[in-house]
Design brief:
By secondary structure, the chain is mostly beta strands. Helix content is 11%, strand content 42%.
């Protein structure tokens, strides 16, 4: 069998995963200095995540918690929200997205309101993005009012995912509920966080940085802090400061790759980790990408890297952003995952 087509597909998937993972810190987390161009309060200044009000949320107990979910060939989970009373098409369900996103071609049909602009940060620096608001966004039992969405063109994803992608469900929705995710089944269920009780396992504290959950894990026995990103169909990607400080390229068989996103690409290497431990589960011979250019998001030293859905597949995830906690339930215990 000729291995080259499979290798090409693997490299293409890695590039796609990296791009999708960058939708998480896609919006600037740090404000410019007061009085500087673009600083909060300056005329025409773009908004930052800190400026964006979340709107309101309401649960309908008569609507089932479980959503209609499709798992596409890349491993991403898709859902179908209703925006301003209209079916909005397929949205990626993405813990790594710091704000919900709507694709540019869908904007005219959904009756969204102009709400200013955002600064999107990526590999090559900052880019402007339009901020919109929906009078209502409904997904299963949850309805969000006056809900913010960032506009960007996601048309290119259809070739990779096999579906036209209308948007991304991210922090704005996840902060308003408790979400159960089984990336393999697939299954997503949304619950009112005020009444949720974990039926099995235990909670682990997480932090939310740039509106993305951060978890602690061990890579080859070393501790690290990683973004939890179901929108990335990779295993684990390391930021350049961690690659350098931990000597992650030394003594490892590597090949060249690139990690891409907003504003361009950075050079990287790919290879195997001997082990990666998350939630008490150790996985061996884990494929990883190592950024070797300190640009954009890959220059961030505060976190070690990014965990994608390949490493998360052994678990049922229970995400409770409202209480800054997470449960990672081994899939053999999934029968006890439901909390009502």
């Amino acid at each position: 069998m000729n291995p080259l087509p499979a290798l090409a597909r693997l490299r293409s998937a890695a590039r796609l995963a990296a791009l999708l993972s960058l939708l998480a810190p896609f919006v600037a987390a740090d404000d410019p200095p007061p009085g500087a161009p673009g600083a909060p309060g300056a005329p025409g200044a773009p908004a930052t995540l800190h400026d964006i009000g979340p709107g309101t949320a309401r649960f309908d107990a008569a609507v089932p918690a479980a959503l209609q979910v499709e798992r596409v060939r890349t491993g991403h989970l898709l859902v179908q929200p209703v925006v301003n009373g209209k079916p909005a098409g397929w949205f990626i369900f993405d813990t790594g997205a710091g704000i919900c996103v709507v694709s540019t071609p869908r904007v005219p049909d959904l009756g969204l309101r102009e709400a200013g602009s955002l600064t999107a940060l990526g590999v090559g620096g900052g880019e402007g993005a339009r901020l919109l608001r929906a009078d209502s966004l409904q997904l299963g039992p949850l309805t969000l009012r006056d809900h913010p969405l960032m506009e960007t063109d996601l048309s290119f994803l259809q070739a990779h995912l096999g579906r036209e992608i209308s948007g991304i469900v991210g922090f704005g929705l996840l902060a308003s509920c408790v979400a159960e995710l089984d990336l393999v089944a697939p299954r997503i269920a949304l619950y009112d966080g005020q009444h949720y009780e974990l039926a099995a396992g235990s909670w682990t504290a997480i932090s939310l940085e740039q509106r993305v959950p951060i978890v602690e894990a061990l890579f080859e026995g070393r501790p690290g802090r990683f973004r939890l990103d179901t929108g990335a169909n990779s295993s684990v990607t390391f930021h350049e400061p961690a690659v350098r400080s931990e000597g992650l390229l030394e003594g490892r068989t590597l090949s060249d790759t690139r990690l891409g996103g907003v504003g361009g690409f950075v050079a990287a290497k790919q290879g195997l980790l001997t082990s990666f431990e998350l939630g008490g589960v150790v996985q061996h011979d884990v494929r990883a990408e190592f950024a070797i250019e300190a640009k954009g998001n890959f220059a961030e030293a505060g976190t070690t890297g990014n965990i994608g859905c390949v490493l998360l597949s052994p678990f049922v995830l229970v995400l409770d952003y409202g209480h800054s906690r997470l449960a990672l339930l081994p899939r053999d215990a999934e029968a006890g995952a439901d909390g009502r």
